[in-house]
Specification:
The chain has one domain: Diaminopimelate Epimerase, Chain A, domain 1 (Roll). 54% of the residues lie in helices and 13% in strands. Helix 6 runs antiparallel to helix 7. The chain has a 4-stranded mixed sheet, sandwiched between helices. By secondary structure, the protein is α/β, with parallel strands linked by helices. The chain is built from 7 helices and 4 strands, in the order H-H-H-E-H-H-E-E-H-H-E. The longest helix is centred in the C-terminal third of the chain and has 24 residues. It comes from Bradyrhizobium niftali. InterPro entries: TPM_dom. Pfam families: TPM_phosphatase. This is TPM domain-containing protein.
């Protein structure tokens, strides 16, 4: 466990996420998710966590493992076509993780998701958080549209509102 990482998480409290993602930005992100979901039959969720607390921090939980916990907690895996996708941002680690259910993950693969994550992180490094998230949602939506085009009755299985933890 790195003392540097613990210090970064203790200093980078949750206020940072709320500062970078105020209600107006969250509303635009929600709109981007809604718009993207008109082009495919998948489900997209965006979660930003300012820093880890308690157990996850002191267990030295990596961002990927934390994203898997969030994916499960929000039941993103619980979609009819196994095509739910979580875009998870852990601000204190400056790390983006995409967790996709097996239906879409088998088609895009780790390398495809990693490309989207790295593009988002590049935007974040230049201070363009809103643009990075919206571009990431658009990229995920393009993958979903290619493999799960809209067809038949489409119901929104998961909330579109971003989650700030």
């Amino acid at each position: 466990m790195s003392i540097k990482r613990i210090a970064r998480h203790l200093v980078q409290h949750h206020w940072r996420a709320k500062q970078i993602f105020p209600p107006k930005v969250l509303a635009r992100i929600e709109q981007a998710i809604k718009q993207g979901e008109t082009t495919h039959s998948g489900q997209v969720r965006f979660v930003v966590e300012g820093a880890l607390d308690g157990g996850p921090l002191f267990r030295n939980q990596p961002a990927r493992e934390r994203a898997l916990d969030v994916f499960s907690h929000l039941r993103i895996w619980d979609t009819a076509h196994n095509n739910g996708v979580l875009i998870y941002l852990l601000l204190a680690d400056r790390d983006v993780e995409i967790i996709a259910d097996r239906g879409i993950d088998a088609k895009v693969g780790a390398a495809g998701w990693e490309t989207i994550c790295r593009a988002m992180e590049a935007e974040f490094r230049s201070g363009q958080f809103e643009r990075g998230v919206i571009d990431g949602i658009a990229s995920v939506s393009r993958e979903l549209a290619e493999h799960f085009p809209p067809g038949g009755p489409h119901r929104n299985e998961l909330p579109d509102a971003p989650v700030v933890m």
